TrEMBL record:
PANTHER family, alphabetized: MAJOR FACILITATOR SUPERFAMILY (MFS) PROFILE DOMAIN-CONTAINING PROTEIN-RELATED, PLASTIDIC GLUCOSE TRANSPORTER 4
Annotated Major facilitator superfamily (MFS) profile domain residues: 1-440
Transmembrane residue ranges: 41-58, 70-90, 96-118, 130-152, 158-183, 247-271, 283-304, 311-331, 351-376, 388-411, 417-436
Membrane topology label: Multi-pass membrane protein
InterPro entries found in the cross-reference section: MFS_dom, MFS_sugar_transport-like, MFS_Sugar_Transporters, MFS_trans_sf, Sugar/inositol_transpt, Sugar_transporter_CS
Entry protein name: Major facilitator superfamily (MFS) profile domain-containing protein
Keyword hit for Membrane: yes
Biological classification of the source: Eukaryota, Fungi, Dikarya, Ascomycota, Pezizomycotina
Keywords: Membrane, Transmembrane, Transmembrane helix, Transport
Amino acid sequence: MSHSQGYYGDSTQVSQLRSIGAITEMRQFAASIGHLTSMQQGVYVASFLLSSAVSSLASGHISDRISRRYGILLGGILSLIGTVISASSPNFASLIVARLITGMGAGQGISVATVYLIEIATVDIRGVTACSLQFFIVIGIALGYFIAYAAHTLPGTMAWRLLFIIQAAVAAVLSLGALFLPFSPRWLVQVGRIDQARLTLSKLRPKGDAVNLELEDIQQSLRSDNQTKLASWKEIFGKKYIKQTSLGLFLMSFQQLTGIDVVLYYAPIIFQQTGFTSEKASFLSSGVTGIVMLVSTIPAQIWIDRWGRRMPLIIGGLLITACFIVTGTLYEIFGRKTGDSVVLCSDTAQWVIIVLIYVYVASFAWSWGVVGRIYAAEIIPTRLRAKVCALEQVANWVVNFLVTFTAPLFLRTSPSGPYFLYGFSTLVAVVVCYLMPETKGRTLESIEYLFEKGGKERSQR
């Protein structure tokens, strides 16, 4: 197994969990576990995010202590345990417990893996390498929807247990693959294992002076940053690093306020509100969403290091804002409450909103789905990166929890409210992205100087 395969198993496993809305809508699930109320559905989906936030907070300290490599392995093992329990759960209570354990694995694995990818990549492919995370996530999303669509015709509980069985298999592959990952060379330097860092860099980089030059840069950065001392939470929010920390937290929080997980988790509900009334049409429409996301991620996978970071966030954010404002306006005009749900009273409006949802998903996939996480990780100095990225992931999970916990009730009670909220939130994020510096083509060590007082920069080698 390649190094990338070992990591991306975690991304696929997490992304498959994003199709959990399709599982809870299955009649076989309702027959065996019981029909979930809006509150229960919100708790079930969001419990994963709550435990992810808790484990993310600890992941930075863990990866600093035991390495990025073993941090990913720990995430894989926890995910494996959680999905095995999910696949064999007899009732709703055990599913909640399993979801909490799986969330702990995801919070640990995703936080550390993001740092790991940023730290092992060269300058010219750092964006593409980190972008691969989202690429494999959307593959998992598309597969999750279509596996759920195919599985819903199976008799009995196997219809919904099959998805958890597949997730357990992927988590097992991740755990095995993590054993073959190289250590992060920057972590090796941080803990004083210089010779091993040089050997690892020589395997990851072209032959020549590049290895020694990069190693010298890493050592110099850590020396000036007090490499013998682990980063403290107080230091992270100190005067020297408050700009990087605040910007990273903002980007990772507002990535969820674009509303993406509302669409991914609750696609069946959203498409039913736009006019797809049958179970088959709802599942199929959700699967198409996954395909649109997958196809739209490919351009970013190819050209992200040419586009830079600011341009995708700004243009993609403006498109997201436009899609949601128009969708909210159409719901305000044509949306009607029927019992505990919302329906559209215009066939034209139904199809316009369906198209806008697909445009929104595509816009997110090549912009905020890819770039926000990359930028938030690469602007943090090496010694602080694991802890700050863990905190960023906590912010992401917490906002995700609040959004997904309230989404079922929000979608069913307010025809236009969710779309206006996420649209204007994204517009605020676009303004911030317009003001932030570009990091394309810079070494991780030189990026630190973009945020120093007066904008002083160190020339790149």
